[in-house]
Predict the 3D structure of the following.
Amino acid sequence: MEMGKEIRRLRIDRGLTQEALAAAFRVSPQTISKWECGNSMPDIQMLPEIAVYFGVSIDQLFAMSPEQQMERMEHHIDDHGLFSDAEVRQLEQQLLAFAEVPDCEAHAEILLTKLYNHQAEEYRLKAIVCGKKAVEKSGGDSDALSELANAWNSYIPDWNVRNHHALITWFSDYCRRNPENRAAIMWLLDNLIDDKRLREAREWLERFSRIDHTFRTPMYRYMIAQAEGDSSACEKLLHELENLADQEWCCALTLGDLYTLRQEYDKAVEWYRRGQDLQPSPKFTDSAQSIAHICEICGDPAGAAAAYREVLRLQREDWGIVSGEGHDRVERAIQALQS
């Protein structure tokens, strides 16, 4: 058994005898010998104690590769609510150790970022709950309103707070050094357009069009035309995107987004459903979630609940998800709509 080999390796690395290890775990030396020879395994309730003793994860006791361990950790982060401080420290320690391994450092840094973003999002949700209570109990105090708005990622009228200058500066430098990275240029374009820095956006779109031959180039042309208020160009580009929709399922979802922003909700729902139909399995739940939001905006709680039930169906049938925080949030949304 791989676990026995790993326990033996850890024991020898630390210069321990079987007798010393047996004393630490309150078992006989013969039991340790059986573990290491693969004739038996430690009781499952002892695994946390053994992992803590050696300063490793339980996954490592099973001799999982670093990539396998990080994959398990990623699923754990995705399916968990707010982690305790002790849990965060444990995950941090494991990921920082992986970040020192040459073939693992990039994945480890991604997961550290994911962990911190996860905690920030969970705290933001807690802040919304507290903020709503603060507004009600304070009689609409301006500080309470401001904090609630911040927790809810509200629009902020102050340009000094709202602008993406620092992000744009970093991404501009990165994209100059990595001119073939389409995803990075797209993030740069999104934020340039949001900040109405349209001259720079057009320059970067020209570079982008040289490496991208999908619907994304006319999509960004549409976004720039919309920001400039050029309705004639918008209509032409929207028609062009509709003609490209069958080439890639993401195009249909993009059309759903664009029609939502135009408040043409019936067309938006039609394109979201088409995008979900075109998408290969396993299908993402974005289309159904977007339809749920539109139904809520339009005062259709029954339609929203039906869309959320579609989210649960996709989670169950396409991803095998029947529990966890992501599943529970959808259940709570349905319950709130029904009540």
Q: What stands out?
A: The CA atoms of residues 125 and 201 lie 33 Å apart. The domain at 2-64 is CATH 1.10.260.40 (434 Repressor (Amino-terminal Domain)).
